Predict the 3D structure of the following.
Amino acid sequence: MAWSFEEILQTVQMTEREHFDVRTVTLGISLRDCASDSLETMKRKIYDKITRLASRHVAAAREVEERWGITIANKRISITPLSIPGEQMKLAGFLELALTLDKAAEECGVDYLGGYSALVSKGMTPGEQELILSIPEALASTKHVCSSVNIGSSKAGINMDAVRLMGEIILRTAELTKDAKSIGCAKLVAFCNAVEDNPFIAGAFHGISEPDLSLNVGISGPGVVLSAVREVGQQADFVDVAEAIKRMAFKITRAGEMMGRQVAKLEGVPFGVVDISLAPTPAEGDSVGAILEAMGLERIGAHGSTAALALLNDAVKKGGMMASSYVGGMSGAFIPVSEDANMIRAAAEGVLSIEKLEAMTCVCSVGLDMIAVPGDTPATTLSAILADEAAIGMVNNKTTALRIIPVHGMRVGDVVDWGGLLGAAPIMPVRPQDSSIFIRRGGRIPAPTTALRN
Amino acid sequence: MAISEATIRELTRKAIDELGPLASPDNVRQVVRDALARMQEEVPGLEGTPGFSASHMNLGSGTQVIVTVFGKNKSGVLAEVARCLADFNGNVIDISQKILQDWFTMILIVDIAELTASFAALKKALGQVGEKLGVRVLAQHEDVFVSMHRV
């Protein structure tokens, strides 16, 4: 037999017990050829292009799932940041385009479509400003559309006008979707150093240097890595822990790439990258927090958590890079509080604070993700949290992001439950001190010296 | 070892010559298949193991699937699964089973090149056999195992 009994059983155990799956296959579609000064023309072109190219996306992914026996949890679409083809639109026009995107996503059978976005790290064009101002209403009036705004980069510095605006946009989105527990904010990400080939929602968009079409894949979640760490036991030293994670990362990256390539082949689309971020789900055991706890921390958030996360992610990268030549996207650690059972527990117990989460983004976390804060948090405080996150990304040449939900009408001690993949989160306290004078200065924080690399 | 199309053509011609009047399409296919299997066995080292030659960049062309059955040990599992595979004309190439503390685990390698229905239909039928017997039956294309377990 070409396969050892143990090899086959390990794979079967991974798929059957440890949530081994492919997290997402995301079809990136360029909408640059859909630009027009006529709203009706743009609507028609966008709807036609997306439905023409993506109508087979879900069916192709299902076919691959069936044949290879591994679940593909999410099938999604990303598009060119809409502000680029939509440069000539006004706010009302963008809102209509949001509805068009929603309809196209519905028609293709995908749950989310990312790319209601603007890239404004150095400054805003009129079209980008109109799009950003339309975000709250666009997210409130659609079901599938996700939005992201890149407000800074290591090259350009941080656009503090955009940072100030985003604080207000986040708060307004929370208000407009208050009947659904401010869920609109779960579909909105602010980035520093956003990547162009990220397959993960809500921050996915199809970058401007991408081809007309490309298919990117996100690998399986933390469940399989958790069982590898548990297996080495509490007495093993760090090199054994790292080694176990690397081996597992190799396997899940290989499987992820293989599945992604098959979907791409069926759709006749060029394969892009494998994103090796470990994305948790609220399912028991499918948790990044649980991996850190398995390494020997009583709770995620305890002292040592930053070091543990650094080790985890470095080992995942090393295993993943050996497995695939096209590792890309975010390829960092996702630590979305509401989507990870162990993080929810740690946050509810007060062990996990925003400050500790911020520290983790210094090593490899891609940001403060799915954090619920009181609904009466001032916009300038939200902006200040974003500025801190962006500064970490800018200085360390890495992606950082903020997906924060000021849940309307809720305060510290309450728990918001969105259900499904978005999970539940305790409302975390933010510092009550005022940052408004700092935020209202406006202008751009200059890029650090590390931006000058030539 | 990668076997080129030219080699297969050459083997086929030889088989037809040797079989003479007995050369029916089925006979020729069987002789060529046996010869190919022998060629693979003769090559020592990793190159000889099926699966190794399939680069992970170029998967999806193989015709082998791996069927895994596990559950409480009881009589008739092998028979029922084998019958189901035979109904669909799946060709069992290799089989291995173990009983660990009353848990039955069986792995079959099956060639589906000449399946009489779709792979999806076979999977469904195997699932139904599993349900009837109270065991889990999984069928996965071998590429999954190639990509995960071979560098």
Remarks:
- DSSP finds five helices and four strands in chain B.
- The radius of gyration of chain B is 18 Å.
- Strands of chain B lie at 64-72, 91-100, 103-111, 135-141.
